[in-house]
């Protein structure tokens, strides 16, 4: 049934075939409609995520079986396998050369069905996570309930903005189901009254601002800390960090509307609609000064990468606090209040704080450590992958670098010999104003691996505009919560024969 295709160099692709019918015959009679395509749910598609189960992908509302194209793919089999069982869109946002007519025609030849219309989420008694949204199978899951997952690290630096479906997900609780028509944001105003703002109010009454900002979880790279001594907390790799262009109202404008003055002091507390079974909601706070700073760029965001905020990222409204740890970027925002004290929530008081390696669960005193706000300078290697096997000759090393508090990245040093000698990487990314460099820089180093080399120990370290640098070892910054790991990132690869 499947006519094998032939690839004649880049761009020249012949006859890959049609899985259902030979519909591309040159002299085909007046097109007679074929039998209707079968309909599949996203869950059924997701079961086809390996060659053994056949590799299915979706594009729009169509389902394709691309198993027979794997070996023919100009981008390689491994790349298609990243999308196996899920949507092509986030990958094709990274590799835009697919948005050409001949590629789409080629894909049509592999169509095997259509997606059934999205079922509205069904509450299941006893499972508070039953109404969580569908996710892309390419994500590497840390925990399913609550959903915590990161993209494959080599994809992180394929595009400056992370496609929303691949953006890391860090949920503390089930994703709430919110009706945008009845949604209200409650803001305690300066006179103690509660303002109730609809989404329409926020969109119509406050100017829309766009900010490109990186969000990083404090636990990014915890796996390296867990390898030293297990913290028994989410073992994030290097992918608990992503970048998006956010759009929404400025928090400052809403606070001014609510009667606050820049000279006021204290903290702005946020509460989400995500709840524990006992009714406790997620909450966090940021300093009032940051919220009111005209250059602080804090948003009440309703857009992510030019589209409506996805459910996993806080639909219909979330806080985006550029330069500040992800945990304060409260999603599914329900309430804002201003007061002399920080949020009383567990996540502000008893989590997301840094401690000495000497502190244990028996000796920890959470009241002694400040809540994490701005994060330290960070960088990581996304390519090559750890334990990859490479050949002598040209080597491209890629990665990301970012610093908290709006500090820009001024340099990334890369070593191929474990830190004995260094090279300076080339930086790329949006130029953002000093002190407002909210988004990461992607970096790249082209190197030559001499013949006879057996292995490389690749290391990277970044320098920010305050000349803050990363510490060389994880051990001395290990802590019971496994947060703030910004040690030099290291990747070892073996070098085979050419
Ligand atoms: C399953 C459906 C897919 C089809 C039908 C497809 C098809 C193609 C075609 C026809 C090209 C050559 C484009 C040109 O003429 O310039 C191409 C290139 C490429 N594809 Fe795909 N692709 C698919 C999935 C993917 C996925 C999921 C990824 C990434 C995760 C990917 C990554 C690439 C890359 C990196 C290239 C460029 C290769 C090079 O220039 O050396 N493709 N693909």
Mind sketching the topology for me?
Elements lengths: L5 E2 L5 E2 L24 E2 L1 H5 L2 E2 L3 E6 L2 E4 L11 H7 L5 H6 L6 H8 L2 E5 L24 E4 L4 E3 L2 H4 L12 E2 L14 E4 L5 E4 L1 H7 L2 E9 L5 H7 L12 E10 H7 L9 E9 L5 E7 H5 L6 E6 L2 E2 L9 E3 L12 E7 L6 H4 L28 E6 L5 E2 L2 E10 L6 E7 L7 E2 L1 E3 L12 E9 L5 E10 L24 E7 L3
Parallel strand pairs: 3-7, 11-20, 22-29
Antiparallel strand pairs: 1-2, 4-5, 5-6, 6-7, 8-9, 9-10, 11-12, 13-14, 14-17, 15-16, 15-20, 17-18, 17-19, 21-23, 23-27, 24-25, 24-28, 26-27, 28-29
Distance between the termini: 39 Å
State the CATH architecture of the largest domain. Alpha-Beta Complex
Largest sheet: 5 strands, mixed
Q: Structural class of the secondary elements?
A: alpha+beta
Beta strand % = 25-35%
Strand count: 29
| Mean of pLDDT | 91
Q: Please estimate the helix content.
A: 10-25%
What does this structure look like?
This protein has helices at 42-46, 77-83, 89-94, 101-108, 153-156, 199-205, 222-228, 251-257, 288-292, 346-349; strands at residues 6-7, 13-14, 39-40, 49-50, 54-59, 62-65, 111-115, 140-143, 148-150, 169-170, 185-188, 194-197, 208-216, 241-250, 267-275, 281-287, 299-304, 307-308, 318-320, 333-339, 378-383, 389-390, 393-402, 409-415, 423-424, 426-428, 441-449, 455-464, 489-495. Helices cover 12% and strands 30% of the residues. The chain is globular, with a radius of gyration of 25 Å. The model is unreliable at 1-29 (pLDDT under 50). With 498 residues, it is α+β, with helices and mostly antiparallel strands. The chain folds into three domains: 4-115, Roll (Flavocytochrome B2, Chain A, domain 1), CATH 3.10.120.10; 140-356, Alpha-Beta Complex (Sulfite Oxidase, Chain A, domain 2), CATH 3.90.420; 378-495, Immunoglobulin-like. A hairpin with a 5-residue loop joins strand 11 (185-188) and strand 12 (194-197). It has ten helices and 29 strands. The longest helix has 8 residues, at 101-108. The strands form seven sheets. Strands 3-7-6-5-4 form a five-stranded mixed β-sheet. The structure holds protoporphyrin IX containing FE. Protoporphyrin IX containing FE binds at residues 10-11, 13, 57, 66, 69, 73-75, 79-80, 82-83, 88, 91, 95, 97-98, 103, 106-107. Residues 10-11, 13, 57, 66, 69, 73-75, 79-80, 82-83, 88, 91, 95, 97-98, 103, 106-107 line the site of protoporphyrin IX containing FE (HEM).
